[in-house]
Design a protein that fits this description.
Structural class of chain B: alpha+beta
Strand order of the largest sheet of chain A: 2-1-5-4-3
Strand order of the largest sheet of chain B: 2-1-5-4-3
Largest sheet of chain A: 5 strands, antiparallel
Number of strands of chain A: 5
Oligomer: heterodimer
Order of helices and strands of chain A: HHHHHHHHHHHHHEEHEEEH
Number of helices of chain B: 5
Helix content of chain A: 55-70%
Shape of chain A: globular
Strand content of chain A: 5-15%
Number of helices of chain A: 15
Order of helices and strands of chain B: HEEHEEEHHH
Radius of gyration of chain B: 24 Å
Number of strands of chain B: 5
Structural class of chain A: alpha+beta
Distance between the termini of chain B: 55 Å
Radius of gyration of chain A: 25 Å
Chain lengths: 363, 153
């Protein structure tokens, strides 16, 4: 049976390679990568995806496949490392396994491995893994408690790993992201003690000195980020004068979405303003409120569930399907009467939500 | 119930799967084989039921009904929820995994769950056999004389 499987896999691979040689399209690259994945040759599958991406830059399906293949390879390695760790725990294995979990975004597992390493005398390096996991979690979930915990772990790292720049650099990144400029200046001063005369650090020191007077304290900055759910750099800047070249009017895009055969409602919201295509009057108002509520509830739920910040909410049922895309620049949503969302609607909605658009006027 | 969830978590990219009641009580949960489950099933069940309950009034504003499937996609993972009879079947996926790729496995899991529920119902409805039938079904001893007891006075 295995021989038959191997023979069939070879035949399919040959056919996929031939198809790719004749037509080097994204579909054929993906088909060949899938054939390699089917015989568990994930490294080769990743190489095929990389080749495809080099030829057809930024193809979303190939990017997704490549990332999936990389994850599968890492999972294989993680399984091997976990079994090796059970037999003979060593610092190198702990470090590599925790690094893999960090790369895969499995922060809880990374923290568990670091905790186990601490039990076996991991010291500063184990604290460093925990601090990285906690900072990554804070950047995704933006909870004040995670931020405080991350700072505490970084402090432990700094005392355990003397003259090591890594914890200081991470603390600087955290302080900059939340907009705590006084704290940023203090960390840069510490870094300058380790690297005196570094021009980039000196420039940053001067910038933070200028900003420190007006900036909030670290605690206040963490509180503000938790309240708003946004880092200062993500908050939209108020428009001055004429719209920028990158800005596009939202109404034509919404009208285009609403003109699709199965789309009943298309909504775009920013702040307290909403633009609705499809229904009119009170029904439009209720649709806009429903979309806003769904986005708000889902944002809070995703953060509590540890899923990070929400990129999409998709609901299906008797009323067809609803896709809500919350983004910093606004919330875009479509309700379709089809049970499954029509092909091509999702990318258009994502583009609408993520694009720098003009403020919607009226509802 | 584990046999319903195990094929789901065997799919690459599925972090965990669980069967929970609509009011947030976990019935069964399963993580990938050989790994410690990262998500706390009780917390996850409560949070998912809370999220779905909070969506009800919001969707009611526009008289929308979306009770068939819910997907919550975040930067660090994706949650997929499907109603399964009087319970909810949910799975947490890795960020790179597409929820659409799991449509068929979810259907299969729901079918398995229905089969398990039917089997349990049939077992519960089958009346217990009469004592005489139990005696008939029991294997007779090879040596008849050994089973004989002395007659009572």
């Amino acid at each position: 049976m295995k021989m038959l499987d191997r023979w069939m896999a070879r035949t399919r691979l040959r056919a996929a390679r031939k198809a790719l040689a004749q037509d080097p399209s994204a579909e054929n690259f993906a088909a060949l990568a899938r054939e390699h994945a089917r015989i568990e040759d994930y490294a080769q599958a990743e190489r095929v995806c990389a080749e495809g991406l080099a030829a057809l830059a930024s193809n979303p399906e190939l990017s997704r496949l490549r990332s999936r293949m990389r994850t599968l390879q890492l999972e294989d390695r993680a399984r091997a490392l976990a079994s090796e760790l059970r037999e003979s725990p060593r610092p190198g294995l702990y470090r590599e396994l925790a690094g893999i979990y960090l790369e895969c975004g499995r922060l809880e597992r990374a923290e568990e491995i670091a905790q186990a390493w601490l039990g076996c005398g991991g010291g500063g390096e184990a604290h460093w893994i925990r601090a990285q996991a906690r900072v990554t979690r804070y950047f995704a979930d933006r909870r004040r408690e995670d931020g405080r915990e991350a700072l505490e772990l970084l402090a432990r790292c700094e005392s355990a790993l003397v003259r090591d720049e890594r914890p200081l650099r991470l603390r600087l990144e955290l302080a900059c992201r939340v907009g705590a400029w006084a704290e940023s200046r203090r960390v840069v001063a510490q870094l300058l003690e380790l690297q005196p005369g570094d021009p980039a650090l000196e420039a940053r020191y001067r910038t933070y000195t200028a900003l420190a007077e007006s900036g909030p304290t670290l605690e206040a900055a963490l509180r503000e980020v938790e309240r708003s759910g946004q880092f200062p750099e993500e908050q939209p800047t108020p428009p001055h004068g004429a719209p920028r070249a990158a800005q596009r009017p939202v109404r034509p895009q919404l009208q285009q979405l609403a003109s699709q055969p199965t789309v009943a409602v298309a909504v775009f919201e920013r702040g307290a303003t909403a633009l609705v295509q499809g229904p009119a009057g009170a029904t439009a108002e209720r649709c806009a409120r429903a979309v806003r509520e769904v986005a708000q509830r889902s944002r809070a739920a995703a953060r509590r569930m540890g899923l990070g910040s929400v990129s999409e909410v998709e609901l299906e049922g008797a009323s067809g399907s609803l896709l809500v895309v919350p983004h910093e620049s606004g919330v875009a949503a479509v309700q379709s009467s089809a049970a499954e969302l029509p092909e091509g609607l999702r990318p258009a909605l994502l583009a609408l939500a993520r694009a720098q658009v003009e403020s919607p006027e009226g509802s | 119930m584990k046999e319903v969830l195990e094929p789901l978590v065997a799919i690459p990219g599925v972090r965990c799967a669980a069967l929970v009641t609509p009011d947030g009580v976990p019935i069964a949960s399963c993580g990938p084989a050989g790994e410690v489950q990262a998500e706390d099933p009780q917390a996850l069940a409560a949070l998912v039921s809370g999220w779905l309950a909070s969506l009800g009034p919001a969707l009611g504003l526009a008289s929308w009904q979306f009770g068939e499937r819910a997907v919550l996609r975040g930067t660090r993972g994706t949650l997929v929820v499907r109603p399964a009879g009087s319970a909810l079947l949910l799975a947490v996926l890795e960020p790179a995994t597409s929820a659409d790729d799991l449509r068929l496995p979810f259907e299969a899991a729901l079918a398995r769950l229905a089969r398990v529920a039917r089997g349990a119902r049939a077992q519960a409805c089958t009346p217990p056999p009469f004592p005489a039938r139990i005696a008939q079904a029991a294997p007779r001893p090879l040596d008849d004389t050994a089973s004989e007891t002395s007659p009572r006075d």
